[in-house]
Amino acid sequence: DAMVIQNPRYQVTQFGKPVTLSCSQTLNHNVMYWYQQKSSQAPKLLFHYYDKDFNNEADTPDNFQSRRPNTSFCFLDIRSPGLGDAAMYLCATSRDRQGVREQYFGPGTRLTVT
Amino acid sequence: AQTVTQSQPEMSVQEAETVTLSCTYDTSESDYYLFWYKQPPSRQMILVIRQEAYKQQNATENRFSVNFQKAAKSFSLKISDSQLGDAAMYFCAYRSANGNQFYFGTGTSLTVIP
């Protein structure tokens, strides 16, 4: 089945130690998103890629970076995680301007910062 | 930016009964998409139902239906014959027809009482 895959599902990192979360998709969608979700809150969009075009949200801290080397993969890099960055990180995909327009979500990566 | 408001942080329903979750949104656009997503505890966010703004007919998916009032900018979700598996956080979301960003409401936590 076509899907959005996130690895790892659980990640523990130390305060200040860089960490990378990965997302892959088999849907061939041209838009990929990264969200941060804290407990019982709505997902907060960090940035998204429309093909290779990177779109950063104005309030996304510089500590968060992203890479999309090809259509299928997208990475979230947290350069110096703080305790406040502990959250669920959701990757999602969608198509642009054609067909169905909803997002498809991955299962998320739960990040713990110690 | 568009805003999406879910005024009910928590709702409960007896099993087999019907419940309606509210959502309002603010936009100046005429063409857009609306969605309801379900996020069970510790599980993946999945699409429940979607509505294209240009369609007057309310969307229906089995036990789930919407009441889309475009002039009032209201998009409520009705769950009929509620089941224990319907217990989850429900998010209302908006997407412009010309953009890739999704705007989420703050969510409604639904409890189903046996």
Number of strands of chain A: 11
Q: Report how far the terminal alpha carbons of chain A are from each other.
A: 36 Å
Integer-rounded radius of gyration of chain B? 14 Å
Roughly what fraction of the amino acids of chain B lie in strands?
A: over 45%
Number of strands of chain B: 12
Shape estimate of chain A:
globular
Low-confidence stretches of chain B: none
Rounded Rg of chain A: 13 Å
What is the terminal-to-terminal distance of chain B?
40 Å
Biggest sheet of chain B: strands, sense, closure? 6 strands, mixed
Commentary on this structure:
The complex is a heterodimer of chains A (114) and B (114). Chain A is an all-beta fold and 114 residues long. Helices cover 0% and strands 51% of the residues of chain A. In chain A, the strands form two sheets. In chain A, strands 2, 4, 5, 6, 9, 10 and 11 form a seven-stranded mixed sheet that branches. A four-stranded antiparallel sheet of chain A has the order 1-3-8-7, with no helix packed on it. Chain A is globular. The model of chain A has no long low-confidence stretch (mean pLDDT 93). With 114 residues, chain B is mainly beta. Helices cover 0% and strands 54% of the residues of chain B. Chain B is built from no helices and twelve strands. Chain B has strands spanning 3-5, 10-14, 19-21, 24-26, 32-39, 46-52, 60-61, 64-69, 74-79, 88-96, 102-104, 108-113. Chain B is globular and about 40 Å long. The mean pLDDT of chain B is 94. The A-B interface holds A 31, 33, 40-43, 45, 48, 50, 55, 90, 92, 94, 96, 100-108 and B 33, 35, 37, 43-47, 50, 89, 91, 93, 95, 97, 100-102, 104-107, 109.
